[in-house]
Specification:
The chain is mainly beta. The chain is 3% helix and 47% strand. It is built from one helix and ten strands; from the N terminus they run E-E-E-E-E-E-E-E-E-H-E. The strands form two sheets. The protein has a six-stranded mixed sheet with strand order 2-10-9-4-5-6. The chain is globular. The chain starts with a strand and ends with a strand.
Length: 119
C-alpha cells in the first residue's frame, strides 16, 4: 500500500490550493479515504473523509464550506480542493486509507504535503 500527497505550497490568505493523493497497492474504490493535517506542535486534526462506494463526504467544522474532497477511482487518486485559505490552515496535510475513526489504527498514510498560508 502506497500513498503520496502533492500540491502543497505557500499561498496568501484567501487563495486556493488543490492537493492530490495518488495511491497504489489496494482496491482504491472500496475504501474510504481521509485527509488529516498536523500543525507544528499539535496533534493530528481530521479534515475530511470521502467514503468508498457512495462517495459521501464529511468535513470538519473548521473547513466546511471552504474545502471539497473528491476522488477519481479510475486514477486511484483522492483530491482536496482548498479555497479561501486562512493562516490557521497552515499544516502538513496527509491522506490516509480509512475512515475518520479508523485511519490511524489502519496505519496507511503518506508522508504529507506542506501547506503554508501567509501574507
Amino acid at each position: 500500500v502506497q500513498l503520496a500527497e502533492s500540491g502543497g505550497g505557500l499561498v496568501q490568505p484567501g487563495e486556493s490550493l488543490r492537493l492530490s493523493c495518488t495511491t497504489s497497492g489496494f482496491t482504491f474504490s472500496a475504501y474510504s479515504m481521509t485527509w488529516v493535517r498536523q500543525a507544528p506542535g499539535k496533534e493530528f486534526e481530521w479534515v475530511s473523509t470521502i467514503n468508498g462506494g457512495d462517495d459521501s463526504t464529511s468535513y470538519a467544522d473548521s473547513v466546511r464550506g471552504r474545502f471539497i474532497v473528491s476522488r477519481d477511482n479510475a486514477k486511484n487518486t483522492v483530491y482536496l480542493q482548498m479555497n479561501s485559505l486562512k493562516p490557521e490552515d497552515t499544516a502538513l496535510y496527509l491522506c490516509a486509507r480509512g475512515t475518520r475513526g479508523g485511519w490511524r489504527k489502519a496505519g496507511y498514510y503518506g508522508q504529507g504535503t506542506q501547506v503554508t498560508v501567509s501574507s
